[in-house]
Amino acid sequence: MAGAVAKLPSLINTALANARPKFNIFMKYARVELAPPKLSEIPQIKAGISKLISSAKSGAWKQQTVKQATLNTLVGAEVLFWFFVGECIGKRHIVGYNV
Length: 99
Fold this sequence. Notes:
The chain is mainly alpha-helical. The protein is built from three helices and no strands.
C-alpha cells in the first residue's frame, strides 16, 4: 500500500504530461469551432440559408450521393439531439415542465 501511495505523484505527473498536448489541440479547435459567429460572418450565414432554401425548392437535394445524404441526416439528428438536451437542461426535469 505504501508503495502505491509513493508512486501516485509520479503517475499524476505522467498523466498530466500526456494529457497536456491533447488538451492544447482541443483548445485550439474549441476556440474556433465553439465561438459564436462574428458580425462579419452574418452575410455568409444569410447566403448559406438562402442557398439551402433554394436547393430545397428546386429539388437539388435529390442529387446528393448516399454519403452526403447520410452525413446531412447525422448532422440533423445531432442538432435535434442537442435541442432536446438543452430543453431538459432548461426545464431541469427529464419529463414535463414544472408549472
